[in-house]
Design goal:
It is built from 10 helices and 15 strands. 23% of the residues are buried.
């Protein structure tokens, strides 16, 4: 049976130290992406492999939460938390990072990232905050974000009504110019028309020549069970429009899960602290504890110590990438009452005498102390 090769360390992949800054990580990834870009290495499967590997490393190390989890637990920690990057092909990488580096790297210099040579629109992002129960069960939510839409005044031309854009003289209307860089000839966006191929002399007053206006839209997002803070959901085709009539970019929805008053999350597991009394800890008892689906009972054995942990299998969070679930870890602690009924105090003092331990003397009321004081001083 073949043995799968172990993943390389992400810092090793990018060639940076573990203390590297966000800027150093981005610069290292950019160099590797240029070096192994499929358009620069046609037919080279090893280059494609390195290109994907670098993208996977950058996806993790560029995310503070994923990076912290990776630093602590390695690849296994990402797999358990559902934080492993998912790139099906190089087009997924173009879509994910074109908003970070712009068209100069993905879809611009080399002409990739679109259908039929057309440039894709830029990717955008939005934020969505949900509670822990929604993260566990999945939900359908609405998100609002801003993106550009075609200007109704000029119908996307950018020119004032009654006028037309003029052909760019610098690039001859192609929108791109060719520059030599060593042995490579690299196409870059025309600096005069910014890739449009045309120049607008009399701009539309509504969109100021851009051809697009910013609008707020509402879209529905289906949240799968098991998401965690930092999970990114892709809304395909909901990003910015393409300036050359190509497909729209994508909108990436970043999830934040609110802190829960009863549960702490550790990957797939949930941790819950449950108070018990001294008699329950000493004699054993059945105590109620909460789960995501309601209240259940836990058998506490005699002699339980404060801080003891009980693992309830399958009561944690669902796995985002499989059908499994984590566990609920119940940690009990002995709660000491701040006020005691007289009978409770009497019994505890008797117990202290039996165990021959020193306890604070019984408190007297303020007025009893005052009476004793004056009696002792002949008042």
């Amino acid at each position: 049976m073949p043995v799968m090769a172990a993943k390389r360390d992400y810092y090793e992949v990018l060639g940076v130290d573990r203390s590297a800054t966000e800027k150093e990580i981005s610069e290292a990834y950019r160099k590797l992406a240029l070096k192994y870009h499929p358009d620069r290495n046609p037919g080279d499967e090893e280059a494609v492999k390195r290109f994907k590997e670098a993208a996977e490393a950058f996806e993790v190390l560029n995310n503070p939460e994923k990076r912290a989890r990776y630093d602590r637990y390695g690849h296994a920690g990402l797999e358990q938390s559902g934080g492993m990057p998912e790139f099906r092909d190089v087009n997924d990488i173009f879509a994910a990072f074109s908003d970070i580096f712009g068209d100069s790297l993905f879809g611009g210099i080399f002409g990739g990232g679109g259908r039929g040579g057309e440039r894709r629109g830029a990717n955008i992002r939005c934020e969505l905050t949900i509670d822990l129960v929604e993260a566990a069960r999945g939900a359908t939510k609405n998100v609002e974000f801003e993106r550009h839409e075609v200007c109704e005044e000029c119908r996307g031309t950018g020119a004032r009504r009654g006028t037309q854009p003029e052909k760019c003289r610098y690039c001859g209307g192609r929108g791109r110019v060719v520059q030599s860089a060593g042995v490579f000839s690299i196409q870059t966006t025309c600096p005069s028309c910014h890739g449009e191929g045309v120049v607008i002399r009399d701009p539309c007053p509504k969109c100021r020549g851009g051809g697009y206006v910013l609008r707020r839209v509402v879209r529905e997002v289906k949240i799968p069970p098991g998401v965690d803070t930092g999970t990114r959901l892709r809304l395909q085709g909901e990003g910015e429009p393409s300036p050359q009539g190509g497909p729209r970019g994508d909108c990436f929805c970043y999830i934040t899960v609110r802190e829960h008053p009863l549960f702490q999350r550790n990957g797939r597991d949930l941790i819950c602290q449950v108070p018990i009394t001294y008699p329950q800890a000493a004699l054993g008892a059945k105590v109620a504890f909460p789960t995501l689906n309601g209240q259940e009972e836990l058998e506490i054995p005699p002699g339980t110590q404060s801080g003891d942990v009980f693992r309830i299998r399958g009561k944690g969070m669902p796995d985002l990438q499989s059908r499994g679930r984590g566990d609920l870890i119940v940690q009990v602690y002995v709660e000491v009452p701040k006020r005691l009924a007289p009978e409770h105090e009497r019994v505890l003092r008797e117990l202290a005498e039996i165990e021959n331990v020193h306890v604070s003397p019984q408190r007297k009321s303020f007025f009893s102390k005052v009476k004793e004081y004056f009696q002792g001083h002949g008042g």
